[in-house]
């Protein structure tokens, strides 16, 4: 896999990343817009990692660290490049980043319905924690 390069996204990559997620990522997020990704990049320009092969964007992961916890989002590999170790390489790069920052445990947001992602995360050593449920509230939305 010597032709694979993994590194942080540049500000000029962000529009391409959003287009990539439309083709390669499962589901959408309230933050999947240019303003949201620009805020991520401005706050932590090394959090969004890109995998490129021969200059082509083939994978992404967001490796966010808030100073206490390590969070993984948007692990996505282009459908035409899956099962070639790209996801594994992206996770290794994210984990190296976390360890360098002093992180002690990574957690990932994985859709319940995405069985192929479950297999990939399991193969990478991640396990679901059945005792937790994610609670969310879109900000700016009225409560019931």
Could you write a compact summary of the structure shown?
The chain is an alpha+beta fold and 144 residues long. The chain has helices at 14-24, 34-43, 86-101, 115-123; strands at 4-8, 48-53, 56-65, 70-77, 106-108.
The count of β-strands is 5
**What is the helix fraction of residues, given as a range?**
25-40%
What fraction of the residues are assigned to beta strands by DSSP? Answer: 15-25%
Assembly form of the protein = single chain
Mean pLDDT: 90
Q: Radius of gyration, rounded?
A: 15 Å
Termini, distance in Å?
A: 51 Å
Shape: globular
Which sequence of SSEs, written as H and E, runs from N to C?
Answer: EHHEEEHEH
Sheet with most strands: 5 strands, mixed
Spatial strand sequence of the major β-sheet: 1-2-3-4-5
- Unreliable sequence segments: none
Structural class, judged by helices and strands? Answer: alpha+beta
What keywords describe this structure?
5 strands, 144 residues, alpha+beta, globular, 5-stranded mixed β-sheet, 4 helices
Notes on the protein architecture:
By secondary structure, the protein is of the alpha+beta class. It has four helices and five strands; from the N terminus they run E-H-H-E-E-E-H-E-H. The chain has a five-stranded mixed sheet with strand order 1-2-3-4-5. The chain is globular. About 20% of the residues are buried. The mean pLDDT is about 90.
């Amino acid at each position: 896999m010597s032709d694979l390069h993994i590194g942080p996204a540049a500000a000029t990559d962000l529009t391409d990343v959003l287009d990539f997620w439309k083709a390669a990522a499962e589901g959408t997020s309230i933050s999947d817009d240019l303003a949201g990704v620009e805020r991520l990049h401005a706050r932590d320009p090394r959090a969004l990692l890109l995998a490129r092969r021969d200059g082509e964007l083939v994978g992404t992961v967001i490796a966010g660290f808030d100073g206490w916890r390590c969070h993984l989002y948007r692990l996505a590999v282009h459908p035409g490049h899956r099962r070639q170790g790209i996801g594994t390489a992206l996770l290794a790069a994210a984990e190296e980043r976390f360890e360098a920052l002093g992180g002690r445990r990574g957690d990932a947001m994985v859709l319940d319905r995405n069985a192929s992602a479950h297999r990939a995360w399991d193969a990478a050593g991640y396990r679901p924690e059945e005792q937790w449920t994610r609670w969310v509230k879109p900000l700016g939305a009225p409560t019931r």
